[in-house]
């Protein structure tokens, strides 16, 4: 008797499951709108599961960026790709991502005299950055009238967002995460799929395309890719939320680039903003402000894709053997002429 009940129960369960599957299949193929929502939910779940979090205080060897043979290393020890020239087929990867009909939001902060960098930044981006994709630039500035007219390609647009002026560059840096967090909440969740937040005192010299896309993306700073981690310019005072002990660290990430899915970059920006606020309440400013907090975030929330220093160089740095192509680089600037304070 009992046995039969169980059998009946299982049969009913099977029928319900099959009916459910048929129903889902039916709605997702016949109604485009539902199809989209269904897929979005799956993606969401997938994102949750693929976070690469590491507890603090775990000891392991510092990963190398260049091997003993002088060859570049193309994966992290947690198996995220490190993007170097030669590790991807630009045409193939762009063709795949173009199928996804994505929008890439790109934010830059151009306050005070930094507006002078916008022209080269935007013009060189129009030559090199996500060519053939929908790109929406969001320019934060206190001087909207200084934003130059730059001819944008098809499906590319620019929005100017006015922010208050500041007389300390450190303050400007400290507020960026907050601005990013709020912009994502108010607009980007519905306007974009991926986001890159980039420094404006830069120029593109080479292709930067869909190979850079990932859930959470950081760039290896060009100044420290062969430096032992105990010498990284991390924040070393335990009182700061950005503190990293000498025995920990993977790469020193550049604060000039942060990217990924809108939701994941929001999480990173929100966390960094919260940590910056805690420090501010204690009157502590981390060694490299936002960059220090970002390094802390990336150490315990590993990027799913790491960009090699090809994606962040510095114009004053001589070329090296490992870096075959410079795609994006910080221009040489006269700090005294562009910063509101020393
Ligand atoms: C997607 O997920 C949200 C929250 O997790 C839920 O409210 C919504 O009903 C789901 N949509 C579909 C189509 O399953
Ligand atoms: C692609 O995305 C844009 C902007 O989000 C939208 O207007 C357009 O309808 C989409 N096209 C397709 C084929 O889904």
Automatic annotation (TrEMBL):
GO terms for biological process: carbohydrate metabolic process. Binds 1 Mn(2+) ion per subunit. The chain crosses the membrane at residues 6-27. UDP-N-acetyl-alpha-D-galactosamine binds at residues 114, 199-201. GO terms for molecular function: hexosyltransferase activity; metal ion binding. Keywords: Glycosyltransferase, Manganese, Membrane, Metal-binding, Signal-anchor, Transferase, Transmembrane, Transmembrane helix. The active site is at 291 (nucleophile). Coiled coil: none annotated. One of its GO terms (cellular component) is vesicle. It holds the Pfam family Glyco_transf_6. Mn(2+) binds at residues 199, 201. It is found in: Membrane. Its main location: membrane. An alpha-L-fucosyl-(1->2)-beta-D-galactosyl derivative binds at residues 221, 291. It comes from the Eukaryota. InterPro entries: Glyco_trans_6, Nucleotide-diphossugar_trans. Its cofactor is Mn(2+). It is a single-pass type II membrane protein. Belongs to the glycosyltransferase 6 family. This is Globoside alpha-1,3-N-acetylgalactosaminyltransferase 1-like isoform X3. The gene is LOC113091380.
